[in-house]
Amino acid sequence: MLSVELEILDSVRGDSRIVLSSVDDCWKAVHTEKYSDTNIKKLVENHVAKEIINMIRPLKLRVLAEFAEGLDATQYKFILRNGFNTATYSWWNELPVAWLDLRNVVNALFMLVNSKKRI
After folding, report:
1. Best CATH choice for the domain 2-112 from the list 3.40.50.300, 3.30.1560.10, 3.30.70.20, 3.40.50.970
2. For 69-86, how does the pLDDT look when each residue is reduced to its tens digit (9 = 90+)?
C-alpha cells in the first residue's frame, strides 16, 4: 500500500490531517480536522492521485534540513509510506530551504481536499 500523509499541528486553528492512499489501485483521500469534527472522505480519480505521486518520485531531498525552532506556530509532518518503508519530513512553520521541492506536493494535497491553506 502506498500512502502520502500530511499532518498539521496548530494550537490556534486546530490540528488536521490529509491522507492520500491506494489499495488495489483505488485511491481515496481523507481529511480530518481535530477541533471541528470534520472527517471528509472522498474517492480520488486515479489520474489525479498518480499526478501527485509522480510529483514525489523524482524528488531528491536532503536527509536533514537546517536547524529551526519556535513557539506558537504550526508544525507540519509529511509522511510517505510504501509497504514497510517510510520517510518522514517534519518542519516548524516555514518549509526549510533544503526541502522546498516538497512545496508543490504539499499544496497539491491541500487543493485535493479543497483547503485554502498553502505553504
Report:
1. 3.30.1560.10
2. 877 788 899 999 988 999
